[in-house]
Structure formats: C-alpha cells, structure tokens
Specification:
This protein is mainly β and 72 residues long. The chain is built from no helices and four strands.
Length: 72
C-alpha cells in the first residue's frame, strides 16, 4: 500500500487513506510495483506491507524522497 501517514496504523480502517498497489510478489528480495499516473505521491508518506486477511501492517518504509526509504 501507499499510506497517507508516515507511521501507518497496525490495522487499516480508513479506506481513503491508502492506495493498494497489488499483492506481495514474493516473501524476500527486491520487488517493484507500478504506480498509476493518476496517483500524486505527494499525498502519501509511507509504503506499507499489509495483510488484508488479518488487517495487519507487517512493515513499512517512510517516503522521504528518491532512494531514502528503509523498511521499519
């Protein structure tokens, strides 16, 4: 997900605060997800690994600019 908060909540309850970029491709290693042109990245402050079934945030990386995100 892309989330509007720098530190996303443990469970997601506000559907308007995030954009789902797709399913997790694999459990380790680099992954890439296309971001639609209509998405304004300035509105989002973190990239999130989230489980829909458990409604649980598994990890996130604050978005501070190109190349500076680190997983938390």
């Amino acid at each position: 997900l892309l989330d509007s908060s720098e530190k996303p909540p443990q469970s997601i309850n506000n559907p308007g605060s995030y954009v789902n970029l797709g399913r997790l491709e694999k459990f380790s290693g680099a992954q890439r997800y296309p971001i639609p042109d209509a998405i304004n990245l300035a509105n989002f402050k973190s990239a999130v690994i989230w489980c829909r079934m458990a409604n649980a945030t598994f990890g996130y990386a604050p978005l501070h600019g190109a190349g500076t995100a680190r997983m938390q």
